[in-house]
Amino acid sequence: MTTKIDALATYLSCSADDITVNGHYYALGDKDYLVVTDDEADEAARESILDSLWAFRPSFLAAHAVEGVDAEVFCIVQSAKFEDATPIFKRLITDLDAFVADAIALDGRARFLARYDGNEIELDGGFFAYRDN
């Protein structure tokens, strides 16, 4: 059975001993990777999306909002609150699960997990890696 560290070491063409581990994060030199299972990637993407609602396009937010709340409302709140708009937006979205599913369907999980390059790396053993820096 392939482990996460072995799968990443194979991908990076290095020894597992060269990689340091901190939770789900694995580092080789100055390169950090989130290494997760498919389910863990889904959960991490969900958390990232729900933590960054303030950064979504108002039109996308409005498509998932309670009746009567349009893109202009999201735009005004976003402009005034920036990151502090996220808790407000959580209350205005009718179905957070559907919102998350649509965001992932449109942009993929890597958009929310791979801050370095936006790429999802499929590793041996059914694991996925996302470069963080």
Which key phrases capture this entry?
single chain; 133 residues; alpha+beta; 7 helices; 16% strand; elongated
Total number of strands: 5
Arrangement of strands in the largest sheet? 1-2-3-5-4
What is the approximate shape? elongated
**Overall mean pLDDT score?**
97
Number of domains: 1
Distance between the termini: 28 Å
Instruction: Report the sheet-strand fraction.
Output: 15-25%
Please give the share of residues in helix.
40-55%
Largest sheet: 5 strands, antiparallel
- Give me the Rg, rounded: 18 Å
The unreliable regions are: none
- Helix-strand makeup class: alpha+beta
- The ordered H/E elements are HEEEHHHHHHEE
Helix run count:
7
In short:
With 133 residues, this protein is an alpha+beta fold. The chain has helices spanning 4-12, 38-51, 58-62, 71-81, 86-92, 96-107, 110-113, and strands spanning 20-22, 25-28, 31-37, 121-122, 127-131.
Give an account of the 3D structure.
The protein is an alpha+beta fold and about 130 residues long. It has one domain (about 5-130). The protein is about 45% helix and about 15% strand. The chain has helices spanning about 5-10, 40-50, 60, 70-80, 85-90, 95-105, 110-115; strands spanning about 20, 25-30, 30-35, 120, 125-130. It has a five-stranded antiparallel sheet with strand order 1-2-3-5-4. A hairpin with a 2-residue loop joins strand 1 and strand 2 (about 25-30). Helix 2 (about 40-50) crosses helix 6 (about 95-105). The radius of gyration is 18 Å and the shape is elongated. It starts with a helix and ends with a strand. The mean pLDDT is about 95.
